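Self-study notes.
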Amino acid sequence: MGFLREESFSVFSSTFHVLSPFQHLCSTRWHRSLGDAAALPGLRDAAWQNPLQELSENKMDDDDDIPQLSSHTLAALQEFYLEQQQREGMKTSQGFNQYSIGSIEEDWQLSQFWYSDETASCLAKEAVLAAGKGGRIACISAPSVYQKLKEQDGEDFSVCILEYDRRFSVYGEEFIFYDYNHPLDLPENLLPHSFDIVIADPPYLSEECLQKTAETIKYLTKGKILLCTGAVMEEQAAKHLGVKMCKFIPKHSRNLANEFRCYVNYASGLD
């Protein structure tokens, strides 16, 4: 997991202004790997999937230093924005469920990649069973699991979401702002060892991120831990949380370049 060199570009065509998705590839901190760029929605054109290479090969305009992109890339960007507009339109339609996965779009700059509906359902079911009747569940950087849990109206459990992205504050008091860089900077009402299970998906595949997130997990849980992270983090997960890899393989709505796995420290239904 690395960082791209941060640069700012503005890319113009004769008919529209393009900024955000291009910057996602030019100055984004990637969660899993740079290979995940190929999974961005709507960006299926080969030229767009490697725009940085295209920029390096194309000459810059001597007058204003604006990168020149091919017609294929610009067409892919137009398709991307069209799909975005269509998804936004669905949010205003009747019957929209604010807790459905995708109701809040992935933000790649925040290293967000949502689980598939099947995976989110499986993890939510496991969390409910592990928490027990009247149990308390904490979701750390795992909003799609939180959303799936909230779809289960009438179930006998409570849940909260600890998340850096303040868009999830629409969920009211159950939202708790969380920055893994400050693992114990938590509200006073979050008492130590007050959750029956903590499910966490650290945003970056680095030992520093895992270690700091682990501090929060161990502070909040009564004992049970369900961790979702890359297969490459198996040794570090065991070191910092005492968890073991499960047979269940989680999937994301966008295919990721790195293999993802689940880890637990109790007898779970994920094996």
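Second protein, same conventions, sequence then structure:
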Amino acid sequence: MVQHLEGLSRSVQVVNLDPAAEYFAYPVMADIRELIQVDDVMEDDSLRFGPNGGLVFCMEYFAHNFDWLEESLGHVEDDYILFDCPGQIELYTHLPVMRQLVEQLQQWEFRVCGVFLVDSQFMVESFKFISGVMAALSAMVSLEIPQVNIMTKMDLLSPKAKKEIEKYLDPDMYSMMEDTSDTIRSTKFKKLTKAICGLIDDYSMVRFLPFDRTDEEGINIVLQHIDFSIQYGEDLEFKEPKEVDEEPGNLNYDEIFQDKVDS
């Protein structure tokens, strides 16, 4: 995404907020590891945390030291900042840390959009897909910000898997429920799964965009959705984001709508 934005001559910065990160091949304007690292927490004999507990401790420590982030960001204006966050789902579902971060950024007059990433290799089965959707919903409810849901690593799927996963990009949950109903033996859980599928389908709350790092057009479509969510460059003429083509068997995209978006 950084390379894509730079190719568009747009200013972009990256902030690493993963205290367990080991390596990344791009420059960052701020790195939480300068404040605290998971390895240091795990090696502290007085804390005795494992990897997961150590990461939660680091993020809670970070939440009490937002002044470090404010100082690291400095005076930024009209910059596009990507906050690279940890992947532990509990940070977004039932712990307050990420919500506190969002609220702090909003107080600093940032327009924030959450980009929820799910590995496409995980989503090739119906029940795993439903689990991923529920995780995305939990994050949406917890953070209360615009959210773009992405299926990542599409370039690593086989042609057969790509064709199979298309039905999950804009799913018909009731049809999916019927297709897998024979594998659910418990009547109680069948009813629960049906209720969950109904919630997802009736409110159309979760939809995924494919992300293939080798497909510049696909990357641009994701970027358009994010830009639209935060009204990036609201003084410019805006285009609505492209929609994924609903014809099965391909990953082509519709044309961009030409209407202006009212500021």
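Instructor comment on the second fold: The longest strand covers residues 114-119.
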